[in-house]
Amino acid sequence: MALGSANGNRAEGATTPLMSWKNNLRALLVDASSTCRIIGKAYLTSYGVETEAVENGEAAFDLIYMGASFNVIIIDMHMREMNGAQCARRLRTMGVQSRLLGMSTSYREHEQHEFLAAGGNGFIQKPLHPSKFVPILQELDNN
Amino acid sequence: MERTHMRRQVGLMRQSLFTQGFLDEQFIQLEELQDDANPNFVEEIATLYYCDSSKSLQTIEQALEKTPHDFNKLDNHMHQFKGSSSSIGAKKVKDECQQFREYCKAGNREGCMRTFQLLKKEHATLKKKLEAYFQMARQAGPLETASRPK
Q1: In what order do the strands lie in the sheet with A99-104?
Q2: Residue limits of the HPt domain (chain B) (predicted)?
Q3: Do B83 and A38 touch (CB under 8 A)?
């Protein structure tokens, strides 16, 4: 299989987004798997959301320190260096006000409690699918 | 005519990947992200997945060789692997991942080892099938599908 330029980027104006929003929505994906990052970014971008994807919590913190801001930050619950709750806690300590969503293929109740207690807002199932993220984006767009 | 025949073959090949349970609906979602601006998106994702996942499998294999098994660590590795496998719609691979995680939860060493071998087999089988599919799809040329407006 030939490796192409799969980075989830779409050329400006190359394709009309599948949805349009009142606001300029920005999302950050934090996921150790490059497959999941590319797919997630491609999905959200095709739905008109300006999306960044990073591979771990530290990279997310760096972006925030550099002044980036997002409406929603989607955090893989099970990263190597830190879990979703630890990442959420640090983001809140940094003053991040974005919606924080934990992402996983399956959830353990105590992990969910921990994430919410750390300042997380909710959860989204992996793999990302428009039926899951569109309602969340609609809610964000209306607030 | 030749091209039509090839496209039919590609269609049949694709269909069998679903009916035989190798792929699930998530793969269709990937196909929907493919368009004129990203004509090889699905193949590129599959290539990336196989790069990624081969490394993950090595890590898990090494962890399985250590005794005693650190089931927590194994479960974490597998969780990530399951995530990427789910993202491309690799159904049989994903199912084996789930089974592996069940054995980890139960602390069943033999179960883990056995399932891991099955997992590697499914992973390799899907790779071969996808390679054949993408190659034939490229030879058959692009389909005239309804793509999103530019």
Answers
A1: A50-54, A26-30, A72-76, A99-104, A122-125
A2: 38-133
A3: no
